[in-house]
Amino acid sequence: FKEYVEEHSGGRIQVNIYPSSQLGTEVDMIQSILTQGGCDITFTGESMQTYQPDLGIIGMPYLIKSDAHMEAVLTGEVGAELEGLMEKSGMKVLGYFTRGPRNVTANKKITSPADMNNFVIRTPQSAMTVAAFEAVGAKPTPMALAEVFTSLQQGTIEGQENPLAMIQNSSFYEVQDYVIRTEHLRAWVYIAMGLEQFNALPADLQQVVVDGGKEMQKYEHEIFLKNEEELESKLVEEGMEFVDVDQKAFSDAMTNGVLAVLTDSQKALYEKISAANPDA
Hints:
Blueprint: H1 2-8, H2 26-34, E1 41-44, H3 67-74, H4 77-88, E2 91-98, E3 102-106, E4 120-123, H5 127-135, E5 139-142, H6 148-154, E6 159-163, H7 164-169, E7 178-185, E8 188-194, H8 195-199, H9 203-237, E9 241-244, H10 247-259, H11 264-275
Helix pairs in contact: 1-9, 5-10
């Protein structure tokens, strides 16, 4: 994105990249963008429910069934509706990154929801994720990602849940023995720019930014597919063991738990997303 935008803007736009939570947590960065406090673009998904509650549907467990289902959602009518909700909250969507399925990590083998009883697990600040894990008897503990490794190391929490890429990149294999193959959430993050910052650009530079977002999304997806093929073997090499679970039992429990807390408008989105599954 940086290379594309700087080149095609003739240097009129400079892109500065701050990885590894240098600008704060995801919530901090969203707030900074919306108040024009120094950050212009970030990656975000269900955390936007603070500003538009319906966007919490991104974190609905077992809603997206496959990569094909996700593509159908994001490129169809319901995807356009979700992007409209992002704009209402002050964010211009420049693209999206699909993420690998989220799995639980732990230092004990877990094969069924019963094994999650009283299990203290870090989750993101997402009402749906919290409700899902409460439904299987766990004790979800929302915290910033930057705090998770130390909390696992110190035993403040017993586990966490993330895609394989995040488990690898955050070195959770150093403090967790098992990847519990729940695959409970297939989700995505939006590449989102402050709408006011976007609108402040002249039309030609707006187009450069939009095109740069498309190029970034395409390039990232190529890297994503390659990485997904390699991640499991890398984590096994690091000493982690993959444990298969009764996914239907997890799906039934988590889905019922979250359906009970959905608003009417969230339920409407749930139905639209479910209906968009090409394999249903």
